[in-house]
Specification:
With about 450 residues, the protein is mainly beta. About 10% of the residues lie in helices and about 35% in strands.
Length: about 450
């Protein structure tokens, strides 16, 4: 039989246990009511990194490795395209196709879901896939949060593909995804294939520039030119090109981030494009710099800026000089924080056309996005963060729409960033029939 003291001790323990259970129940009820309150009903569920797939689905923090310099440190300091876990809709694939008004061709796209580029027809059917993990392409380089996917891709004659790993390197793959050659230096955001086979890209190097930051290295962006085999021919500093030009005051003050320019697009002016605007000469390069909201024309031989403009847009991507002499541009945040596509006169800045989305669905992509003027006058727009591409007429009518089928998260609630959908002529897929390739030949 328990003593009086033991019975009292057991009673105290029981009371404490009941009290603890009561507190836990109360906390659970409060937590449940809070999640159902109007203020929190629309807050998306945030899941931990361990249940999200690698790729461009979510944000991650980064630490700066000790002792690294140059291009390796630049890969860490560069502002990443690291989405925020945007909720996916239930729809996927080609949702709209007006064959009478849409420009007919094939579509090449890259996405944050994986290290591959896909070629689809106008109805969304897979024609071909190129796939190569970064670890196979560059076994001696350290992967980062931006190397699990192709940032950009360019289809070559015969089915070869140029594929860019963000900050990791550039590869040329054959139609069966075997490596033809690789360039191990870090390139970022975009590439341009010239008519003579040379490749124009954007690179970064972290180095001390005391006039900009007295103690910490900053990223110096450069235009790099590679030959057709991926060998470096030359490198032109964009910072120095500005400082050695009449436009030096345009970049003062520089942003507080160490990625001072974040150059994201390059177009080499070739052929008739080189003389449609006074001062825009063949052989010069049109470049977009996101962090300073500037579009600039760079003379690659004299290494100086010939023209630059900051105006009406915010954190822009993809300026493209059109045959009309106007510039088409994806304006990420300039429509009261939302996105739009602009067409403007470069010398006056006058906006000739813009598209900001449908009344019930405005464009919204703060960190990435592209636009492409098609031969029939329509515009193909990639709303990257929404995982959506749309083709619109001059009057803003929607004639083609594609929503990414690549989903992630434990409930498939996330959509992968759709970096670029590029419309190519039907002849771009001729390599498929040349050797009997099909969607089954998808590489390893």
């Amino acid at each position: 039989m328990l003593s009086f003291e033991n019975r009292m001790s057991s009673a105290r323990v029981s009371r404490k246990l009941l009290l603890l259970i009561g507190v836990l129940v109360l906390l659970s009820v409060v937590a449940y009511l809070w999640t159902k309150s109007p203020e929190t009903a629309d807050v998306p569920i945030v899941e931990s990194d361990d249940v999200w797939p690698p790729g461009r689905w979510h944000s991650r923090t980064r630490s700066t490795p000790q002792g690294e310099q140059g291009e390796e440190l630049a890969r860490v300091l560069s502002l990443p395209y690291t989405g925020t876990g945007r909720e996916a809709t239930g729809e996927a694939g080609v949702l709209l196709h007006d064959p009478e008004r849409a420009y007919q061709g094939v579509n090449l796209y890259t996405s944050g879901h994986g290290p591959e580029a896909l070629l689809i027809d106008m109805d969304g059917n897979l024609l071909h896939r190129w796939r190569l993990p970064f670890e196979r392409a560059f076994p001696d380089r350290r992967p980062t949060v931006e190397t699990p996917f192709f940032r950009r891709a360019h289809l070559l004659d015969g089915g070869d593909l140029l594929a860019l790993f963000q900050g990791g390197g550039l590869v040329r793959l054959d139609r069966r995804s075997e490596i033809v050659w690789s360039h191990g230096a870090g390139l970022y955001n975009d590439l341009h294939l010239a008519e003579d086979g040379r490749i124009f890209g954007l690179a970064k190097e972290a180095r001390p520039i005391p006039s900009i930051h007295p103690t910490e290295p900053v990223l110096e962006d450069s235009i790099v030119v590679l030959d057709s085999e991926g060998r470096l021919e030359r490198r032109i500093s964009l910072l120095q090109a500005f400082l050695d030009s009449p436009y030096a005051a345009l970049i003062d003050p520089l942003p507080a981030s160490r990625d001072i320019f974040h150059s994201n697009t390059i177009q080499l002016l070739e052929g008739p494009l080189g003389d449609v605007v006074p001062g825009f000469e063949a052989g010069t390069a049109l470049v977009s710099m996101r962090e300073v909201d500037i579009v600039a024309l760079v003379d690659l031989d004299r290494r100086t800026v010939l023209w630059a403009r900051r105006g009406g847009w915010d954190a822009q991507h993809q300026p493209e000089l059109l045959p009309t002499g106007r510039i088409l541009l994806f304006d990420n945040r300039g429509a009261d924080g939302a996105s739009r596509v602009l067409e403007f006169e470069p010398l006056t800045g006058e906006i000739e056309w813009e598209y900001a989305g449908e009344p019930d669905r405005p464009l919204s992509s703060h960190e990435a996005g592209t636009s492409q003027r098609l031969p029939n006058g329509n515009t193909l727009i990639t709303e990257s963060e929404g995982g959506r591409a749309l083709e619109v007429t001059r009057s803003g009518e929607l004639v083609w729409e594609f929503v990414s089928p690549h989903r992630g998260g434990s409930r498939d609630q996330l959509v992968a960033t759709l970096f670029e959908v590029l419309r190519l002529p039907p002849s771009a897929a001729d390599f498929l029939s040349a050797e009997g390739l099909s969607s089954g030949d998808v590489g390893r």
